[in-house]
Amino acid sequence: MSTDLPLEEPARRMTTPAARPAPVPDRARTGPVPGGARTGQVPGGARASNTWELSFRLWDAYFAVVWVATLVFVLGTAHPGWRIRLAAGGVLLLLIPWYLLVGRPVLTAEVPDERRALGYIAGAVLLFLPPGVLVGETRLMTFALIPQCFIALRLRRALTASAVINIAPVAGWALLWRPGGQALFFNSVFAVVTLVFSGALGSWIIRIMEQSRERAELITELDASRHEIARLSAMHGALSERERFSREIHDTLAQGFTSLLMLVQAVEAELDHDLPGARRHLALMDETARQNLAEARALVAGGAPADLDGATLPDALRRLAARHDASIAVTGPVRPLPAGPEVVILRSCQEALANARKHAGSPSAVTVGLAYAADSLALSVRDDGRGFDPAAPVDGYGLAGLRARAAEVGGTALVRSAPGDGTTVTVCLPVPGSDV
Fold this sequence. Notes:
This protein is of the alpha+beta class and 436 residues long. 64% of the residues lie in helices and 8% in strands.
């Protein structure tokens, strides 16, 4: 490089890339980060990789612009001679295939390869130093090379490579061309200043990218947790639905089939000596079978229970009590209520009446009480049968399902019994007041 340049020319020409911050790729989620680290895999990893591949085309364009500008400066300068400038331009041409064939795969690799990264940066520096020493304008190429050091290498190695790229060409140029003291001073000062600035900016960029990587890993973990929560929620929903169907089947179809079996046994016992009684029980069998069919259809359709379809809760309980030869008393102002509490009361009554028929013994009187209060609804089913010990282990699903059904709407279910003293089942539910 000529030593008779104006004093402002070294400052303009020798400024390194650190003085002009280059664009930094957002690789927090989509590709490699400095220091050989990579972000965690997020759902759609192939898409993320493609995003980084597409965004790297901006770096390709940036590299091409800097390379063309450098070549124009090298060929257009007045010093040194044209042969040296052509030789420097010829060496610069080798950077293109080196970048495309070696550098680009290293910089966009999904899995870091420190050896390949070091090899690429070392080769790029070796191709850059000869023209950088011969023609000072070649040092414009540092704008493209230094960012690649911080992309491909760990911080310490990136700083070392940046120092070589900034200092070595100036030192070689000074030894080769022996410039004047003023030109040498300006070139050296700017090389040191831009080296420091490059290190500071590169370190900041790496910290930002590492923070982005940590956030990407956190997002990956959160996304995995979200999927796990969704999976567990689906499982819980399936179990809840299974439990609901189990209760519905137990309180309707299973109880109906039990009633049918008991009626069949009664008919068999009455056929020889009590035809009117047998006919009455056959009519009950027909009614029970039809009721079971209606309940099955309502269960499949997800609608209201058959007894509540087009009827009030007291009417439904009266029909239910009639099928079980039970008496019923309704107290308090009757009013329409939400479907949830009414279904719970109806199913609880079905379960209590079925238990009374199976376990109370015969003959036994069963009474049903339904009480409307200002903010509650209570059902009581009492029989004067043989009773049982509530503290004793109980097999079966009925009482547990009854308590669970009441708890789902914020209510309670109590069972009071003693051997020889009958059984009372009480279900109390909170409901809206009469002014709602």
